[in-house]
Specification:
By secondary structure, the chain is an alpha+beta fold. It folds into two domains: 10-93, Phosphorylase Kinase, domain 1, CATH 3.30.200.20; 98-185, Transferase(Phosphotransferase) domain 1 (Transferase(Phosphotransferase), domain 1, Orthogonal Bundle), CATH 1.10.510. The chain is built from five helices and eleven strands, in the order ββββααβββααββββα. The strands form three sheets. The chain has a six-stranded antiparallel beta sheet. A three-stranded antiparallel beta sheet has the order 7-9-10. Strands 8-11 form a two-stranded antiparallel sheet. The longest helix is centred in the middle third of the chain and has 20 residues, at 112-131.
């Protein structure tokens, strides 16, 4: 599935698409140029089939609101959100680096000191968010970008929730099965 946006397309008269960075379960992410501020950004563009679904749109908006309220060196910065061409977008900090998942895939077992450092950085992001009553609910190596200096940044607050519940209004459990905490998998409230 793709949003089908070509390089050179200008989103909302502000963001010129440069290239596709990746695709996820509900959106494509593009590298774009913010024409007003002359900087690179990442644009997350919701798949059009989800733009008609009020629950998905709310989740998408919630990501922007949750992440925008979290100013921390280990949390991706959100700059803007909006509606364009029948769908919704979030403009955020463009991060240079690789996902933690890609690093693990390439190197296999990681040096213990490096692994401890990564874990510490990720937990700092989680603690910061939790202290502001934001639960990420989908921490996994795919959602951590590591730059060349070893700085880890948590991304994808797409299913973040203010409060402790891990269930949607329909009772569905949110998250990636392989990375759910036991309480999430059982449909219970998450702990801090």
């Amino acid at each position: 599935m793709s949003t089908g946006v070509d390089p050179g397309t200008v989103i909302d008269e502000r963001y010129r698409v440069e290239y596709l960075l990746g695709s996820g379960g509900m959106a494509d992410v593009y590298c774009a140029t913010d024409l007003q501020l002359d900087r690179e950004v990442a644009i997350k563009l919701l798949y059009r089939r989800f733009a008609q679904d009020a629950e998905f749109v709310e989740r998408f908006r919630r990501e922007a609101s949750a992440a925008a309220g979290l100013q921390h060196q280990h949390v991706v910065s959100v700059y803007d959100r909006g509606e364009w061409d029948g769908t919704y977008y979030i403009a955020m900090e463009y991060l240079q680096g690789r996902t933690l998942k890609a690093i693990i895939n390439e190197y296999g077992a990681l040096d213990s000191d490096w692994a401890i450092d990564m874990t510490t950085q990720i937990l700092r992001a989680a603690r910061f968010a939790h202290r502001r009553n934001v639960i990420h609910r989908d921490f996994k190596p795919h959602n951590v970008i590591v730059d060349d200096d070893g700085l880890a940044t948590v991304t994808d607050f797409g299913i973040a929730r203010a409060g402790a519940s891990d269930m949607t209004q329909t009772g569905s459990i949110m998250g990636t099965a392989q990375y759910l905490s036991p309480e999430q998998a059982q449909g219970h409230a998450v702990s801090e």
